[in-house]
Predict the 3D structure of the following.
Amino acid sequence: MKNIPPLPQRIRLPYHAPWDWQQFHEHFALRSLAGVECLSPRCYARSVRLGADSGWFSVAPLDGCAELELELHLPSHHAETLTARVRKMFDLDSNPAHIAAHLGDDAILGPLLLEAPGLRLPTAFDPFEQAVRAIVGQQVTVKAAVTIVGRLVQRLGEELPGAIEGQPTRLFPTAEALAEADLAGIGMPGKRVETLQRFSAACASGALQLHVEDGAEDLVQRLCALPGICPWTAEYVALRAFGDPDAFPAADLGLLKSPVWGAQGITARELQRRAEAWRPWRAYAAVYLWHAYSQAGRTGG
């Protein structure tokens, strides 16, 4: 007899409206990794590794209600952990009214909130994966970074057992695999390869723990202590890997060139100063500035 896979577990995930599926679809469309992620107009899916288990999940919006549907293709005892991580990934627990109450009166941000109410903070499922993406993405476009990370996946990512066409087929490489691999010809400058492998080795050995239990600023300091990791990279990891609501990569090109600043843009120092008024929601301010940048025909954030 054939081994019949267990039926997927389906969980409904409520959220505070407004929440925009299209915002997340556009975010994933720019960054999707072939093999690891699958994206269709009404569904996002990705592979996952949890301890000794691996599998995948999918998320889709439900019509007529403020809920998403999470479908799990992993052992059921992972349901609670996965549900919490997916809720964080899709920023389902924030209250847009609280954020708008603080940012809505700002001369720069107020009009942006009126044009696109309720934008959320998309957060990575896996902090290590997001940190790898950020390191690879230093001083290159989002598209170029996705291309290089895709090569890492194809070269070092394990095949997902039992995968079939139309579903995720590969797992993101482990820290151990990245630390020990020969990355010649991967498409990055030698110093950035060294940074990536030094970071991966620190994660693999446990010398670097990726968490924000002591605050995002502590994580930023620990990351910046590694040669080759700049403040932008560390702040971006705090924002995208952990969804810290006040993380703010002030040197990000998309923030500095957002059309709200006019043709000349703004300096990182001036942006940092102006952003003080946006605490403790600076990450959401960044989301709106990036959104304005993308609406002007560019890609950032």
In short: Residues 190-205 form the longest helix (16 residues). The first strand starts at residue 9 and ends at 14. The mean pLDDT is 95.
